[in-house]
């Protein structure tokens, strides 16, 4: 059988996502702070983009659709000067993006802001507070008696965890550095003399002892108390009194002093990589007993196309490759502005529906939080469930009750006692916390008793469910709570 070249023509179908669509999907999941970083990169790579004015979008009374919303003037300017297909803004087909319908029919009023501020430097958002390691290293020089101790002390600081505890045995440190153990112990004493007091400890008892010494309260009685923290945890106060040889009043003072110490002194300082939570959405009371839903103007994207610069560059383009490159940059800039505008409208639309669904929470608190799913919001605003999931990721909402992640408002439900509906799991947790906070120290509520009290309030839960919710919000068992209340009472 002879071998030879042959041409075949085949027809096939495949779904291909363009880079623009992939980028649009990623933009939905980013917070406004992440968008700032993205815009900073775009400004560096596209000469036609520049920082522009803040564009505000507000939704007064989200339950009412306002049909008189003017269009974005920035988008108009981009569409006006049609200089051929290359100048036209890129269009995003909403049906291709997660099968969502167009978000243009939105209940927000678009208006042009006038702050005139330049795009803030991305580096300004970095956490400028010193880390624990930086705070300690700044003190080593004056505290160390010589260069050798300073070197070992800095090495030990690198082994301290975020809570302020030394995580490596001194013998291993000595072997790693090739120095005598006595030199490492001297350096550890230097570290433990630094601020905050208690840092560099190898155990909780040592951490509390360092703080007691700093307060000049480390007498033999306090030493015995700190050396027997397991008895304190078990609430064996009578035994501790005999061991410390103190009366009730002195023992109560010792416990109060012990409670005033910080078991994790290192947590006072930042980790160096954390960023402050800046709300993406602001909720304020509106007219007619409604709500104003708006994006945080401080973090809104601000981009415009420099048309004059484009015209100047276009006049200087002599070859086809240069014109093609300039056309691509203009198309990319137009598409990015349109994508960011669509992202803002989508976020506002989702946020307004959440506010509408959880109106009771914003008026009366967590006890009125209703069970809510992504599907319910997606169906109400006629979007795909995956898009709602992306919009609610890494987004925070600020209202009169505080700052909450959008995911917080999507909670599972439990059956009510009458069997006619469901209530939010967060509402149940709030009731459990309220009951435990109000319980009598002499009559701590068991899980069975909590089940009965919750049933009287309209929550039909099994005992294991109550125990699960109680542990989820950090409330101990009835035995643990009884010990804690006895400690607060001083025995």
TrEMBL record:
Top-level taxon in the UniProt lineage: Bacteria
Domain RNA polymerase sigma factor 54 core-binding: start-end pairs: 124-309
PROSITE patterns: SIGMA54_1, SIGMA54_2, SIGMA54_3
RNA polymerase sigma factor 54 DNA-binding domain boundaries: 324-483
Pfam family, one: Sigma54_DBD
Recorded family membership: Belongs to the sigma-54 factor family.
Name of the protein in its database record: RNA polymerase sigma-54 factor
Organism annotation: Croceibacterium soli
């Amino acid at each position: 059988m002879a071998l030879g070249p042959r041409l075949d023509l085949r027809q096939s179908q495949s779904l291909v996502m363009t880079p623009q669509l992939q980028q649009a999907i990623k933009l939905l999941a980013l917070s406004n702070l992440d968008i700032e970083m993205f815009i900073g990169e775009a400004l560096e790579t596209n000469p036609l983009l520049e920082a522009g004015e803040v564009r505000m979008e507000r939704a007064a009374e989200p339950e009412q659709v306002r049909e008189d919303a003017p269009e974005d003037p920035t988008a108009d300017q981009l569409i006006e000067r049609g200089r051929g297909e290359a100048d036209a803004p890129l269009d995003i087909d909403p049906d291709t993006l997660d099968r969502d319908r167009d978000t243009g029919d939105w209940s927000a009023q678009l208006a042009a802001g006038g702050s005139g501020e330049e795009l803030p430097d991305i580096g300004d958002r970095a956490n400028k507070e010193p880390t624990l390691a930086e705070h300690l290293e700044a003190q080593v020089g004056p505290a160390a008696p010589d260069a050798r101790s300073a070197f070992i002390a800095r090495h030990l600081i690198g082994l301290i965890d975020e809570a302020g505890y030394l995580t490596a045995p001194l013998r291993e440190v000595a072997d790693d550095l090739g120095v005598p153990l006595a030199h490492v112990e001297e350096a550890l004493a230097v570290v433990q003399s630094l601020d905050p007091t208690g840092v560099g400890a190898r155990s909780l008892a040592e951490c509390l002892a360092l703080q007691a010494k700093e307060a000049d309260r480390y007498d033999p009685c306090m030493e015995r108390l700190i050396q027997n923290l397991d008895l304190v945890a078990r609430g064996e106060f009578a035994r501790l009194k005999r061991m410390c040889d103190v009366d009730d009043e002195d023992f109560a003072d010792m416990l109060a002093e012990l409670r005033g110490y910080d078991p994790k002194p290192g947590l006072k300082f930042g980790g160096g990589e954390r960023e402050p939570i800046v709300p993406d959405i602001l909720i304020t009371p509106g007219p007619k007993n409604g709500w104003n839903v708006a994006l945080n103007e401080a973090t809104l994207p601000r981009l415009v196309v420099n048309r004059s610069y484009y015209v100047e560059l276009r006049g200087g383009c002599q070859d086809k490759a240069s014109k093609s490159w300039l056309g691509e940059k203009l198309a990319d800039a137009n598409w990015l502005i349109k994508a960011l505008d669509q992202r803002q409208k989508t976020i506002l639309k989702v946020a307004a529906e959440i506010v509408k669904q959880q109106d009771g929470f914003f008026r009366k608190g967590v006890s009125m939080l209703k069970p809510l799913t992504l599907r319910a919001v997606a169906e109400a605003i006629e979007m795909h469930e995956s898009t709602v999931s992306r919009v609610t990721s890494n987004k925070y909402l600020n209202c009169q009750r505080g700052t909450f992640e959008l995911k917080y408002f999507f909670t599972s439900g439990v059956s009510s006692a009458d069997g006619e509906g469901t209530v939010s799991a967060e509402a149940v947790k709030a009731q459990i916390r309220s009951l435990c906070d109000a319980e009598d120290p002499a009559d701590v509520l068991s899980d069975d008793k909590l089940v009965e009290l919750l049933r009287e309030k309209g929550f039909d839960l099994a005992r294991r469910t109550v125990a699960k919710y109680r542990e989820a919000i950090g409330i101990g068992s009835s035995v643990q709570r009884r010990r804690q209340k006895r400690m607060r009472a001083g025995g």
